[in-house]
């Protein structure tokens, strides 16, 4: 029996009348189907109505997805967002408690883009709201190009931490990644270790280091876009799938984390 993989949703308006919907990109579903080898389960952004404990009783892994919306600054004591910034408070109110509970249980977790930022905030870190406005930072935001190949193409390099999780997967101390985000880690959360850094010092990859915790990793870029052609992107999802199956088999906490080291 395949393991169940929870995929976080956003609240978005669709259709002629702008009806609210719970949505996740097909890229995460396809990666779960074709690489992770799990059954994708979309987790709605239903805020405080989310039954976190029931969800975690049933799923075997979590993918925290990217999104156009930004984590609300109230959750990390930041200043108000600039006018026009997309927000999704219902998602924040669901994912942030979910992350804390999942980490405590040892549920394997892969955090991507907004999910990467949520992981840092949930564990006590803070964010830059617009990296392009921070002195010394490059513009990490989505290229406004109609071509998906341009928007999702490699945008800059990352210096990989020697001997870490990402170094083991990549087999290199420098890799190239896409870049489609405004927010970025400011203060790193306690318990997270840096696995990769952009040329401007922006943290691009992390993992949880507590030996009593399961497999929890995060990347600021989007491996779900190019796993069919990029070895590292595919490897990220393959290893996550291995950890999900291990958890589903009954392994817990440090056993799961140790299996990836």
The CATH architecture designation is 3-Layer(aba) Sandwich
Which radius of gyration do the C-alpha atoms yield?
A: 17 Å
Spans with pLDDT under 50 lasting ≥5 residues?
Answer: none
Question: Which CATH top level class fits?
Answer: Alpha Beta
The largest sheet, given as strand count, sense and whether it forms a barrel, is: 9 strands, mixed
Number of strands: 13
Task: Count the DSSP helices.
Answer: 8
Order of helices and strands: EEEHEHEHEHEHEHEEEEEHH
Number of domains: 1
Q: Secondary structure elements and their pairing?
A:
Elements: E1 4-8, E2 10-14, E3 19-23, H1 26-36, E4 39-43, H2 52-58, E5 61-64, H3 89-105, E6 109-112, H4 114-122, E7 127-128, H5 148-151, E8 156-160, H6 165-170, E9 174-177, E10 184-185, E11 192-197, E12 203-208, E13 216-219, H7 231-248, H8 254-260
Parallel strand pairs: 1-4, 1-5, 5-6, 6-13
Antiparallel strand pairs: 2-3, 7-10, 8-9, 8-11, 11-12, 12-13
Helix pairs in contact: 1-7, 3-4, 7-8
């Amino acid at each position: 029996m395949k393991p169940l993989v929870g995929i976080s949703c956003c609240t978005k308006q669709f259709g002629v009348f702008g009806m609210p919907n719970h949505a996740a990109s097909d890229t995460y579903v396809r990666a779960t189907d074709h690489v992770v080898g799990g059954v994708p389960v979309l987790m709605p952004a239903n805020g405080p109505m989310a039954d976190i404990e029931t969800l975690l009783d049933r799923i075997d892994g979590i993918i925290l997805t990217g999104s156009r919306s930004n984590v609300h600054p109230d959750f990390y004591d930041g200043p108000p967002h600039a006018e026009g910034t997309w927000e999704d408070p219902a998602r924040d109110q669901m994912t942030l408690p979910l992350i804390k509970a999942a980490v405590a249980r040892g549920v394997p977790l892969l955090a991507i883009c907004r999910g990467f930022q949520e992981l840092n905030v949930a564990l006590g870190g803070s964010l830059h709201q617009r990296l392009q406005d921070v002195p010394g930072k490059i513009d990490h935001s989505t290229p406004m190009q109609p071509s998906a190949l341009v928007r999702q193409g490699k945008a800059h390099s990352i210096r990989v931490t020697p001997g870490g999780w990402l170094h083991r997967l990549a087999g290199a101390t420098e890799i190239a990644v896409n870049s489609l985000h405004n927010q970025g880690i400011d203060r790193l959360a306690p318990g997270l270790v840096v696995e990769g850094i952009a040329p401007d010092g922006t943290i691009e990859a992390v993992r949880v280091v507590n030996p009593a915790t399961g497999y929890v990793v995060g990347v600021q870029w989007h491996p779900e876009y190019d796993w069919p052609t990029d070895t590292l992107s595919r490897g990220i999802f393959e290893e996550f799938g291995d950890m999900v199956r291990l958890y589903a088999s009954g392994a817990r906490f440090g056993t799961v984390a140790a299996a990836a080291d």
